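Can't attach files on this board, so I'm pasting raw text. These are the components:
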Amino acid sequence: MIAKGKFMIKILEKNIADKIAAGEVVDRPLSVVKELVENAIDADASAITVEIKHGGKTYIRVTDDGVGISADEAELAFERHATSKIKQASDLEGIETLGFRGEALASIAAVSRTEIITKTRKQKSGIRLAIEGSQTAEKHGTGCPDGTTIIIRDLFFNTPARLKFMKTDATEGSKIIEFVSQIALAYTQIKLRLISNGTMLFSTQGKDDLYQNILTVYSKEVGMNLIPVAKNTEGLSLKGYISSPGISKPNRKSQIFFVNGRVVNSKIIEKGIKEAYSDKLFDGRHPIAFLFLQAEPKTLDVNIHPNKREVRFDDEALIVNFVREALRSALLTKESIPEVKTENVFKQKTNGVCQNSAEKTEKPVSEGLPQGEQENIKSLLSTIRKNEDTKPHVIHETPLEYQAAAPAMAVSETEKMKTPAPFDFDELTIIDAIFGTYILARDETCFYMIDQHAAHERIFFEQLMGQYKREEKQRQIIMVPIVLNVSYAVKEDQYSWLDALQNLGFLIEPFGPKTYRVTEIPMFMALDESEQFLKDFIDNMSEQSNLELFPVIEKLIMKSCKSAVKAHDYLSEEEISRLLSDLRQCENPFSCPHGRPTFIKMTQYEIEKMFKRV
Ligand code: ADP
Ligand code: MG
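---
Top answer:
Structure tokens for the assembled complex are below.
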């Protein structure tokens, strides 16, 4: 305990002051990695290796091939407020580097055993320094490549409180993996390598290829189902990738946003995404999204506090609309139709002759890594996450809470992306229908299978929703009325559901104590469809609360159109073209209301690959 009041005022010893200051900059292994990686980026590195052991608690190494530090300045770099990035107060206005406070190295060195080996391009040889709790323990010249390596051992060895505060190796490690993964997406021109406990987790190529980096860092399953997004207007551009509605997650942890190069949290972008997928995903499901938004710096305010990464837009509605529209058009492109790929077909290893060719077609996720190493990564990732994550290596499920600021990030790659054209139904030629379920069709470059039930469900759903929203209902009189028998409970509740069904275009009147008579049905429905729909609607209704709420009705319709469309397995040619022309009228033709795909495609190229023609 420190007694109050009884001491003389004096300046703190350097190592104590540094230790106190360190608490603000370094609070866990992640913060060390973050500072060191950002320094490497500021040093213009084109390759960065991050190596950790025990989640970074015992060992962190960051090696770069950047500008290096000259031998006579190396020690200075570890002084507090020592920075090469700003010289005068006015420089603060236009900071283009990630760091500028000159506190990181001093703070890190105060709470660990630090070693630095560095050499500038001009110097013939480099220097090696060992610093232990702020004191230089060793210093001598050494031969080394251009650039800087910093090794941090035994983090918090001299601050027991912090030491105790660290979580398990797995938790600390996964936070670092998250961060380096984000850096890999933001800086596609840098070769990034991540090694944990002696195993390489991933290695990016630095070829400015965002898509390749997503495949490398996340999983192939995720990557193969991504749809490119690209939209530009004056002062705003959005690029990146989103998942098709068939791939969704129970939370938003697979949504990563970069605004002007910085990783940010943004409720506004989330809202735009949610609206774009509103009628494609159930409540509580979220798509994967890697989105890079560029906006005029004067139209937003990025709070660059290391732990907040919030962004405030001047015109929030504009951003919501922009994101929604960009995603909507992406979801209507040919790219958004799920594709059958050779990789899936040859997934299982076979014995004998086929094996080689199968392996040839199966490119490792991280190119340049042998297959064995891939397996290691997968098993490693799953052990790392096993404590907190039940779904290893699908995509990182732990919160993304780092700021990966990147003034000059990889937009150049995404800029290459053209705005994809919407899918053109006119190009489709129907070939046949098989198994009473799938319509086969083709266009210039692709072969398609269309699930007629899913398509029908989508059409049905949109027609009903349209009818519900319309003032003038389009009905048809039926010759023989449909008779509905309901329970007393349902009868009690008639005011809510009768209204809802009238709104959908049914004309219903009481016809006995527990019986109703339906004399008119929606224009677009067949008699048997109506009958099935009404039964399902009433069955499902009892589970719902307030039928006056739009989302409740929406969900109810979604549920009830399912069985209604089971009928009519074998469609005539006219029925097929009718179905497709109805589908093209839909706002979301490529998935049923429950998120299953209506279309699957195979490109001619993939087919040829499967037959080993290319
Ligand atoms: P800041 O990044 O805020 O300037 P740091 O404490 O992180 O402060 O680094 C202090 C200085 O050390 C930097 O300004 C830079 O000149 C130098 N430095 C740190 N890391 C590297 C590196 N990897 N390559 C070259 N110089 C570096
Ligand atoms: Mg720094």
